[in-house]
Amino acid sequence: MAHLDTSGHTPVLILGDAEWSVVHGVAMGKQVAGDRVARRLRRNGILDDDGITPQAAPALHGVAGATRHLDAACFEADGPGRRAEAWIGPRRATLVKHERDGFHVYGLDGCDVPSAFAQLLDIGPRHNIDLGPRVLPERVYNLLEVGDLGALADELARLARRLDQGGEPGEIGGPTPLTEGFAHRMWTLSLISTDTPGAAGWELAGALTTLSVPECLYEVHPRSLADALESGASPEAIASMASSGPSGPEEMALIATTSLQVWLLVSPWFFAA
Predict the structure, then answer these.
(1) Cβ distance 67 to 271 under 8 Å?
(2) Handedness of CA 179, 266, 207, 93 (dihedral sign)
(3) What's the CA gap between 15 and 243, in Å, rounded?
(4) pLDDT at 28
(5) Which of 47, 78, 85, 190 has the CA that lies 20 to 30 A from 206?
(6) CA separation for the pair 220, 200 (Å, rounded)
(7) Do 217 and 258 form a contact (C-beta atoms < 8 A)?
(8) Could you write out the DSSP letters of every residue in 50-97?
(9) Is the pLDDT of residue 248 over 80?
(10) What whole-number distance in Å separates Cα of residue 89 and Cα of residue 94?
(11) CA 178 – CA 256 distance, rounded (Å)
């Protein structure tokens, strides 16, 4: 699969999973192996005896000097998901887009990282009409953990049918913008996390999951973490809970937010640590 495209203003590498693993390792300073994958990368002008070839190197300048790793994904109820990662250094970043035909790898100036990730953050103008529900059942936690989006869409649609009992909009037993979005599969799930180097290697430095429908946007947290946030727990305690995760499946809390609040929270993650 390995392919090096030099027709544009910056080279683009298109790689399979094993090929990206080898290229990433070499960019981090590992020796070039002599296995079948490495030979294929040599034939396609990506590796040589010295490591990354000069023509492929601009796509990978961000990897070796990275002080931050960023991973973001966006999924819609009935549409294909999108995911991208970046290794961010003081001047350059390496962006990896997960596409149907493999990993598309190319270099960016550090200042261009925010625009590359903005489309995965589900931010935009909304009326911010929050009429609930504000708690999702444990099964949603399980489905998020295994990444079964089809089953998640079915579960949210069942939840909407259970909550909407024919009442007036906004009243108990009536539809809300959120349940309408669940029922008509018009929701978007966005996940972003960042890692920075620590004593034991790369360590989680922050993460955010949001769920939206056209009218409103929510942060999604395990119920225990949401309760800790509401009670005013210390930032250190919140960070510890977020990195370790809950001890088992639990309800998921929805905390109403805005696109501006999300942007202010995650924008520092777009730059070198």
Answers:
(1) no
(2) positive
(3) 31
(4) 92
(5) 78
(6) 28
(7) yes
(8) TEE-TTTGGGTHHHHT-SEEEEEEEEETTS--EEEEEEE-SSEEEEEE
(9) no
(10) 9
(11) 11
Cα distances (Å, whole numbers) of residue 39 to 2, 56, 87, 139: 11, 15, 25, 46
| Structure confidence at residue 235 (pLDDT) | 73
Specify the residue for token string 């203003």.
Answer: 9
Quick check: helix, strand or coil at residue 210?
A: strand
Confidence of residue 232 (pLDDT cuts 50, 70, 90): confident
Count the residues in the chain.
273
- Backbone φ and ψ of 201, nearest 5°: 105, -155
How does DSSP classify residue 35? Answer: S
Dihedral of the alpha carbons of 14, 18, 20, 22, in degrees to the nearest 10: -130
Cβ neighbours for 269, distance < 8 A, ≥ 6 positions apart: 68, 70, 192, 194, 205, 206
CB 224 within 8 A of CB 250: yes
How many CA atoms lie within 13 Å of 157's alpha carbon, on the beta-carbon side? Answer: 12
Is 116 in a helix, a strand, or coil? Answer: helix
What is the percent of the chain where pLDDT is above 70?
Answer: 99
User: 162: which DSSP letter?
Assistant: H
Q: What value does the CA radius of gyration of the chain take, rounded to a whole number of Å?
A: 21
In the predicted model, is pLDDT for residue 172 greater than 90? no
pLDDT digits (tens, 9 = 90+) for 185-224: 999 999 999 999 999 899 999 999 999 999 999 999 999 8
Q: What is the DSSP letter of 269?
A: G
Prior bond to 133 cis, omega within 30?
Answer: yes
∠ CA 102-108-112, rounded to 5°? 115
